Amino acid sequence: MDGIDSINGLRELLTYKDKKAALKKASEDFAAIFINMMLKEMKDSLPGNSLIKESNGQKIFNDMLYQDYSSLLAKNGMRSITDSIYNSLKRGISIDTEKVKNK
Fold first, then answer.
1. What is the pLDDT of residue 82?
2. What does the alpha-carbon distance between residue 49 and residue 8 come to, in Å, rounded to a whole number?
3. Which of 6, 61, 64, 102 is the most exposed place for a label (fewest CB within 10 A)?
């Protein structure tokens, strides 16, 4: 129980701005995961090259590349997805942030 009590104490110490920044970061991360899944599905829909098989190294490189692309798109290019996620999550925790804001 001591661990749970200390976690709850830390949550109360977070200021409204800290919670807002953490929520924004979580929204960007979730949007990046969504965009990454979308990019992978788009790639998988393309016909492959039957003459040259993709090596494991190429697969790993492409996965890392798509992760970077999706992070950049979530932060800059597809801001509307990130903003929609942020607004939805913000409505869900507005009661908690108001308690902290008023303290």
1. 87
2. 54
3. 102
